[in-house]
Amino acid sequence: MEFQQFVNDYFINPIVEHSGYNMINTLFYAAIAMVAAYLIFKKFKKQFTKEFILYTVPFILLGSTIRVITDSIDSGIAQQHSSALFGLIGAIVNSGIYDYGFLTVTPGIYILIGSFTLLSLVFSNALRKPKLYPTIGLALWIPHFIMVLSMINEASFALLIVVLSAALLAFSHVILKKYKISGIASRLAVGAHILDGTSSFVAIEIFNRVSPQCVQNGFCYFGQHVVERFFGEIMVYGTALYLMVKVLFAILASVIIERESEGENEKYFIYLLIIIFGLAPGIRNFLRLAIGA
User: Fold this and answer.
1) CA 282 from chain center: how many Å?
2) Number of other CB atoms surrounding residue 209 within 10 Å
3) Contacts of the segment 252-258: beta carbons below 8 A, 24+ positions apart
4) Using an 8 Å Cβ cutoff, are 124 and 130 in contact?
5) Residue 292 DSSP code
6) Reduced to 3 states, what is the DSSP secondary structure of residue 169?
7) Buried-most residue among 61, 99, 181, 210 (CB within 10 A)?
8) What is the pLDDT of residues 180-196, one digit of tens each?
């Protein structure tokens, strides 16, 4: 009974109640992710290159975008746009495919997208057509992205995120150049965490203070992740400090990776992990705020 209560309190209820992550499930999911990452690295070590990172990005975008479609249905935003795309949004809502459930939220969405990514990789390897791998990801992501674009309600906040992220990315680029770090992998890693931090900052510290949805109707955003929520609770505008920490972390991680990695494959594997942990929540937060879900 105590074990069942433990599972309910730390794993089931956070999903059912939409209360975000806690320390227990965060550590558990992180441990599972690290073990899975290690096994994947051992199996596909030679494939971790700069090109492989770029080829994997569409699958990261796919998972986050599907999650946003679920958010749109769960919040009622999709129902407001049921006639969009010639009624496609309404059909999606009625189908129940993207309804809030195990396979559309953490950890199910990670298992689903991770499995499909691996299957796509194995399939493209079997056919000896490496570019088929990203093509599959793009073919699946683009229709989902178009669905999200048709529901945008908060374009001004989305634009603010883009502007702030671009400014911080330019700043980080200058610092990385001083350490003689170049290449798309480091920029993607830093940019992913900038987007994650900036979208959280704009949603929590700006949208919540000026949008009628929050001020008048009580529809406000909050930090769903443990570290993000910690910074938001310790001080006013704490999410701004969280953003600064994210930027510094990504820059420092890039410096360490470039100096300490034992080989190119290991370097790009670590970069990919950092990109996933920043880009996946960053894209979800960005698109979710853009549609007001």
Assistant:
1) 4
2) 11
3) 253/189, 254/176, 254/181, 254/186, 254/189, 254/190, 255/176, 255/179, 255/181, 257/186, 258/179, 258/181, 258/186
4) yes
5) T
6) helix
7) 61
8) 998 999 999 999 999 99
